[in-house]
């Protein structure tokens, strides 16, 4: 039972962080300059969400992970992330290159999202699209949102 409560405690915080990231990426996609705090929030989301999802994926794909501590307790997040990927199923690039690839590694997809966040947070001007990470964080937040604790 303690793991369930720990997970429920983190889901609302991750949900709020995802919403914040989506709003920041919307601003970025409109060509507006991001503040230092907004760039830090992007990097925090990358560290807390994308980097952990990459580790989960690598673990499942059979790669050796240096530090597995804490990963198994939050494995359900990986399931939510996989469900969130449905947002890309109608995109022709993802359909042909990512999802129909025989050598597909989901960890590589999360690394692509992570690099996009790194690029966005280090650029002074919008030079790359924030569409893909924005759509992922939006979809991921929708997956974890119904699992919030309701106070009655």
Would you kindly provide a written description of the structure presented here, covering whatever features stand out?
By secondary structure, this protein is mainly α. The protein has one domain. The protein is 67% helix and 0% strand. It contains six helices and no strands. The chain has helices spanning 2-29, 36-60, 75-84, 92-99, 106-122, 131-144. The longest helix is centred in the first third of the chain and has 28 residues, at 2-29.
* End-to-end gap: 20 Å
β-sheet strand percentage? under 5%
Give me the Rg, rounded. 16 Å
User: Number of folding domains?
Assistant: 1
- Give the CA-based shape: globular
Helix content: 55-70%
Class per helix and strand makeup: mainly alpha
Overall pLDDT score: 78
Query: Which stretches are poorly predicted, pLDDT < 50 over at least 5 residues?
Result: 1-6, 148-152
Number of helices: 6
For the secondary structure, the number of strands is 0
Could you spell the SSE succession in H and E letters? HHHHHH
Largest sheet: none
Quick description:
This protein has helices at 2-29, 36-60, 75-84, 92-99, 106-122, 131-144. Mean pLDDT is 78; it is low at 1-6 and 148-152. With 152 residues, it is an all-alpha fold.
Task: Produce the secondary structure layout.
Layout (H helix, E strand, L loop, with lengths): L1 H28 L6 H25 L14 H10 L7 H8 L6 H17 L8 H14 L8
Helix pairs in contact: 1-2, 1-6, 2-5, 3-6
